[in-house]
TrEMBL record, chains A, B, C:
GO biological process: D-galacturonate catabolic process; D-glucuronate catabolic process
Example GO molecular function: glucuronate isomerase activity
Biased composition, class Basic and acidic residues, residue ranges: 15-25
Enzyme class, broadest EC rank: isomerase
Region (Disordered): 1-25
Protein species of origin: Sanguibacter inulinus
Source superkingdom: Bacteria
InterPro entries recorded: Metal_Hydrolase, Uronate_isomerase
SUPFAM superfamilies with a match to the protein in the record: Metallo-dependent hydrolases (SSF51556)
Gene symbol of the encoding locus: uxaC
Family matches, as NCBIfam families: PRK02925.1
Catalytic activity as recorded in UniProt: D-glucuronate = D-fructuronate
Protein name (database record): Uronate isomerase
Organism ancestry: Bacteria, Bacillati, Actinomycetota, Actinomycetes, Micrococcales
Amino acid sequence: MPQSSTAAPAPLTLHPDRALPTDPRQRDVARQIYAETRSLPIISMHGHVEVEAFADNLPFADPAQLLVVPDHYVTRMLVSQGAAPESLGVPRVDGGPVETDSREIFRRFCAGWHLYRGTPSRYWLEHELVEVFGIDQVPSAATADTIFDTIAARLAEPDFRPRQLLDRFGIELIATTDAATSTLEHHARLAAEGLGDRVVPTFRPDAVVYLDRPTWRADIDELGTVSGIDTGHYAGYLAALRQRREAFVAAGALASDHGHLSADTTPLSDTVAAEIYARALEGAVEPAEVQAFAAHMLFQMAAMAAEDGLVMQIHPGVLRDHHDAVYQAHGQDKGFDIPVATEYTRALRPMLQAFGTHPGFRAILFTVDETVYSRELAPLAGAYPSLRLGAPWWFLDSPEGMRRFRETATETAGFWNTSGFVDDTRAYVSIPARHDLSRRIDAGFLSRLVTEHRLTHDEAVETAVVLAHTLPQTSYARRP
Amino acid sequence: MPQSSTAAPAPLTLHPDRALPTDPRQRDVARQIYAETRSLPIISMHGHVEVEAFADNLPFADPAQLLVVPDHYVTRMLVSQGAAPESLGVPRVDGGPVETDSREIFRRFCAGWHLYRGTPSRYWLEHELVEVFGIDQVPSAATADTIFDTIAARLAEPDFRPRQLLDRFGIELIATTDAATSTLEHHARLAAEGLGDRVVPTFRPDAVVYLDRPTWRADIDELGTVSGIDTGHYAGYLAALRQRREAFVAAGALASDHGHLSADTTPLSDTVAAEIYARALEGAVEPAEVQAFAAHMLFQMAAMAAEDGLVMQIHPGVLRDHHDAVYQAHGQDKGFDIPVATEYTRALRPMLQAFGTHPGFRAILFTVDETVYSRELAPLAGAYPSLRLGAPWWFLDSPEGMRRFRETATETAGFWNTSGFVDDTRAYVSIPARHDLSRRIDAGFLSRLVTEHRLTHDEAVETAVVLAHTLPQTSYARRP
Amino acid sequence: MPQSSTAAPAPLTLHPDRALPTDPRQRDVARQIYAETRSLPIISMHGHVEVEAFADNLPFADPAQLLVVPDHYVTRMLVSQGAAPESLGVPRVDGGPVETDSREIFRRFCAGWHLYRGTPSRYWLEHELVEVFGIDQVPSAATADTIFDTIAARLAEPDFRPRQLLDRFGIELIATTDAATSTLEHHARLAAEGLGDRVVPTFRPDAVVYLDRPTWRADIDELGTVSGIDTGHYAGYLAALRQRREAFVAAGALASDHGHLSADTTPLSDTVAAEIYARALEGAVEPAEVQAFAAHMLFQMAAMAAEDGLVMQIHPGVLRDHHDAVYQAHGQDKGFDIPVATEYTRALRPMLQAFGTHPGFRAILFTVDETVYSRELAPLAGAYPSLRLGAPWWFLDSPEGMRRFRETATETAGFWNTSGFVDDTRAYVSIPARHDLSRRIDAGFLSRLVTEHRLTHDEAVETAVVLAHTLPQTSYARRP
């Protein structure tokens, strides 16, 4: 693909009005709205940065290991155009050979820069290159080495360690994602070092509620060990989960996180649940039982949430590891997770019948199926006090995706039944770019309401602040 | 939520260009188009204002009872943010205590004014406050009492009675919705008093075709009584329905109205239908039979429509009363009706095979599942002469919803296979606001076709008039 | 409908900026982008112009037979407003009487001109009338005869024969669609006359893989005859298909074309497939077996494609011949083909597991269910190297449809995982209009990325050229 090298490269810059609307009157208004939110601190409650990054506070390895190898948004695009994952340094499960020359990996990434045109990755990466690393060259085969060296030099500076970046990025509060079996030792260390209120854990029990995970049996045993409760039977399993939730609450957790295939929340009877659990221990569980048990556990988690006040994040609808060979070679989260149509109205009904108006319960709903915004999620969030509609998620965390979200959800749910912007990234240095983009898109949406005389200027500014800061804060406040 | 009180309130005004596009050239064109439709009379063929309002012509009770308590668009938003329905005066089925101080209810509504930002309720309410009641204050806790008093004073004026508002609102024709069991006595009174051509009934048989409605047995008996035909068996039931349709036609009805869960129109054999009916009378009907019978009756209603010419309005896809506790406490239509994905292509096929090209048959299709506009409804309406695509309905009766409707339906269905704008409201004083908004959005859509040189200015103006007035009139004309 | 005659008709003209964005700054950029693509040659790899048109190179019959009768986009709109297909000259299967006066048919079409407002047919027809035929009158009852005469005169000119139009239209490469049973004799003639590289066949086996087609048995026999392989059993049937694919490759084919009801690609065992095939020969096949066999054959076609390199075009999701009576009277492709919701993530998985990363395999996916762009197709195309996402198809080949496609697919799939613009028409003279429109819409989309500072001007121009010419060429290049 010679495309990216044909034009004489202009310097890489960020336009101050990027991602704001084109119409001059609307842009003026959007600029004024954005000016009021751009410097607000970041609340990042649904991210997946590893807690070790903060606990150890080691420098990042190198530009490729930071920006390319672990970011499946980035690698999937190159793979989709024919690159082997190995050539991008994506580790093999069997420890087999992959590219280890980070400079070479970075060259391959830069040579494919044109492939990201029109994608949010391009937008975020540009922001990172310019704002975080001070790069002024457009990535290409010709500029790859220079850019690599510049970033590498920055990463060696003391100011670029994970904890220091919290300040640089204006992060007020960030949540990590932690398995139900986590001992939370890294969080204990952070707390001891005064960061306990700034870096908090999130309780993620997926690995122990999906009975067919290859690691399920080992995880259940570990759950027993870490909780000190016998998980050899269903009642102990439930008690152990409850105990872990309490430990997470004690460690500062505000939320739990649930990535199910479907949104089903139909509870089973205790007897049936216990039978399925027992069969799973024997390794004799049926696929339909796996799904039924996962749905049952979503209901159980809601029941516990109504007691302990952890905010429940639910993001269903992704068929993980669509390509077996990629999964077997490279493991999970390698860009081959593909959404499926997802039903919420009937699926969430058991949970909402039980806890939908419970003052101690809150669920935040995410989706990668945009069709449900106006049809199901906004009507549900616009009725049930326990529900808030999460930010555009994953593939939808993008300029057009965020715009469509506001256009399709707001009229039925209003603004206050949404969670405000919540990123979902393991790419730490992309966090400021993502929040900045969301503030620009929200400013653009609100500016149109103003120029169409559907909202006053003052209301729009106030709403923008609510979306950028107030709602992420209040949506994730533990319930009374 | 202090948001609505932080900014110094500007006076409440309506901008003459509200809801028109921002781009100056497009706005100029839209303004000219809108100028040609703004004063056209209103045809309101799918509303739910109670016929008693016109028959009795009593003054409205008070501002809260007019604008808040009966409007589930309004109450659901407050409920979604934690208000108890009782605190908003929403009556309890058991007659239990609810707030009876209308002034207090109105204060709660005004204090939550910010929650409506970006919703069509906000848009309609602003229009009503300014245009209908002459209010110039933004609702808030501080202004609630003044606004209440102003509206209350207006409601006491003779010009604000329901019949007088017909003239004030420019309503040429309005349909009420009447149960199949209605004696139509109020309509007879209206006819006797010269309003028979202006306020017409609509035949709505849902209560007697859904065999599992709690009131079904009582309604069936009443159907027998009012028709004078024994409904103790299926043949009599059909005959009674036919007789009532004739009575409705005689009373001026132009249409029937069908709110089914699914769009299924698969007919049963007479034998099977009669058996299910008999079992329903014994109280022994299965859920699957209930749905099958409802589908069968949709087909039967189409068959009768092809004979008597009543236009058939079909609006499926809403799971009613999603939260049992709210339903049991407060009854139907309390904001907890949630859409589900709805299939039309296969579901309507039996009906369309039988009557789709019948010159005496017309069906108008509504949906709250936007995904079917471009995929199913526009292709169907763009082929079958019997079909017209109804206006954006319910949650979609909104600026963005109406815009998306035109953008996704027009290219395949054209304009003439749509019904023009039809509101669906029980909030009488919102009718002018809703029609005005639709005319603005259509003007905006058409103006873009003009400025993108896809339509001439003259064509756009002519089309706008067709959408605002001609099509509602011709779509609901009884068939030959 | 008097609408189209009320206004004094302005001359029919094409605005040079038609279908470009309204905003002045965006339009300027779009104009510059479009200027770089407007004259690029056309690659038309998914059309349905009959090969005989090129082989025989006879003049077109008359304006109605060219523009109205065979174009179901055009006739369906008139039918939807009450015209009988017979009155438009649509032939009856039984040879029964239909209108034969082409002038009268053309009058009916012109009198209904207002019905096409807002549709792509209107846009294409205007382009054809002005650009191809030099008409300057707006079609109406009053102008029909003059327009008819002008077009008829043009059609009689030697420059208006099909082969001559290839040059006039700037068509570099066009594919016809040919049954698996085709002897390819017309293509042989074209090759002998030096057009073999410009007009190529496409292998379409639908008629022989759907076991319930009325003509299936006859087609199977013909497949045996033309291939010289006994199709009386499953192995011979597969071998015959393989042989035909080879013949198509030898004749210059680049692609196969598959119009299935569902996207299912689940393979059967050889034994089961052979059993179903044998039962089909006996006329004893079940509906579920028909679908299972079609899915199996999609998998088999992919397997053969991975060997012979034919690019596989898959466009599922249309329920054909929705109205039996129209089908029985007039046959297939009469405007009563209605889309259904279509699932891809699970349906394509078997094929993608097997061939999704195979260097010899490419599939191009089309849909008429827009909901899958962002949810399923863009994520799949953005991961699997074998997949490209085809252009907006059929009802979606329209200004708004193309715009939504770019807005919903680009952020996840990027540009390079799409096929560029591919038309799907049997209306030969509409081809330049369709490609021109797509270039305008892409210019408009790209211009917004530029004015929102998400893409540089140079990148936008380069991308536009890639979409208009490079990608159609490279996407349909036979694989190594």
